[in-house]
Amino acid sequence: MTKAGLEKKSSFAFCTGNMIGLIILLVKEGRKVRLGIVARRGFWGLKGDKGENGELGSKGDLELKGNPGEKGERGLVGRKGAKGLAGSSGSQGPPGIKGNPGRQGKMGSSGNQGMPGLRGQKGEKGQKGNCKAVELIAFSAGLQKRISFPLLGSPVKFDKVFLNENDGFHAESGRFIATTGGTYYFSYHFSISGKSLKAALFHNGQEIQQMFGVRQPPSNISRVSGSMLVQLSEDDEIWLQILNASQNGLVADESTDSVFSGFLLYPD
């Protein structure tokens, strides 16, 4: 649509609007109005230019300050923020109070061996001690052929004497009698034939060590040995004795050996 057409429609709309307004005014005043045909409403006119700003109004009256409002509810906890940058190092603080001593540490490893020291001076000669001569006591004796299968309940009589230092062994009784107190070592070696053997070492009538041997076929001769250290006082007696008559296979001949031996190890 052209500019002239727009202006014509605008004028028509303006006139129509003025006519309606006049009719309303006359009716209000009580005048008779002859109404004609109402024309069709025209088009809206173009928007006018913006008017200038009005003058600034005067400042209103200052009212009294109101009372503080009520404290609101606590808000929700916010999310954890990102880690901040590291701050610069602060100045060194004053020394703290001295603490208690700590626990003792573990023992360290051994160090390297040091160099040998200088040889010391020779010491003074000591005083002469009391030297007691040691009495030599030792024996060893065997069985004669005729002593095979000795009697039950009495010492075995080893009558074939090989050694008898200081005469402590008595072949006629088969007993050893200590001539001095001390620690003695005794040993025995028996040959067995025909049946088993059950015997024991006695100290002053008390059994202190028992031995047991069995003949092992097909050999006709078997052997049993033993030894023991015994503390003896002067005049104490030691011997070997058969314990069971049915277990008395102790033999002696040219081809076998049954020996009882002992000696003083060191005196009291």
From TrEMBL:
GO cellular component terms given for this protein: collagen trimer; extracellular region
SMART domains xref list: C1Q
Compositionally biased spans, kind Low complexity: 83-92
Region (Disordered): 55-126
Keyword Secreted recorded: yes
Keywords, comma-separated and alphabetical: Collagen, Secreted, Signal
Protein name: C1q domain-containing protein
Source organism of the structure: Laticauda laticaudata
